Amino acid sequence: xxxxxxxxxxxxxxxxxxxxxxxxxxxxxxxxxxxxxxxxxxxxxxxxxxxxxxxxxxxxxxxxxxxxxxxxxxxxxxxxxxxxxxxxxxxxxxxxxxxxxxxxxxxxxxxxxxxxxxxxxxxxxxxxxxxxxxxxxxxxxxxxxxxxxxxxxxxxxxxxxxxxxxxxxxxxxxxxxxxxxxxxxxxxxxxxxxxxxxxxxxxxxxxxxxxxxxxxxxxxxxxxxxxxxxxxxxxxxxxxxxxxxxxxxxxxxxxxxxxxxxxxxxxxxxxxxxxxxxxxxxxxxxxxxxxxxxxxxxxxxxxxxxxxxxxxxxxxxxxxxxxxxxxxxxxxxxxxxxxxxxxxxxxxxxxxxxxxxxxxxxxxxxxxxxxxxxxxxxx
Length: 379
Known about the structure:
379 residues
């Protein structure tokens, strides 16, 4: 299953520690300050003289290991104590990434042409990258859990950026034993909107574009917090339900999940906001109907693209007030050229756009001149 299909994400255990390991504590100089990570709980980047130390903790839920990578600039001298870690020469010139959530960072940093391979190309929505695919400059590599090792060994990319589901990926292990460089990326496992978006700094460090990555994230952060501030002027808080049935279970975001936090920041009352957890909540139809039958708005009803499709699949959906009032909003109609959902690719990277959409849904008077980026009402 593609990680990008997960709407709610699990949280990490703790912030990472300083990693430069000097013999004694140095003065704070430009070569020795960390690339301040404000929101991402699974990422630490420490800028040292001629190299950076990148630590990724919990790249999958409940991971017990922290992964350390050394990004080495030309002619840099690496301390002996750090040579046991994976060493990557930067800036990289060619890359393979394995989740569509990685694509926007490459595009925003202007380095999408360095992409030489990706698993399941049809999922990519970016028009710039699709042009590269059409020009046969990006190779199809199978699936994340079963990458085409022969093709990767032929490509010899400077770096493969992977992700973990449970820590078991024999393909990535084999590729590393074959001499290829692999870094794990834990963006999907962040629980907060800005925490996920901050992983652009991970890619900024790989390309020597730290300053640009910081500027892009600062702009996203500013837009997000400004939009969040707008809703404080409204006392109205519509009630919100989410999700839909899948194999007789209704899946919806837990109270501390990524999806739930958007609803809260957009000035609405998510009916399961008090549930404890950061993952997905699984309930019976009857339980959801009892609590949400009179909800004002319905967000993210699986991948349905119309009210008629929903009612055909399950006539009982029509019992909800939000359905009757046509207040059902989905991101499923906005797709790339080969069917990939744009939301899955861009939403984790542009939480400010997601929040603008939700404020426009819950408080349209506050966003009169803003078009929807991802969501739209189902017809």
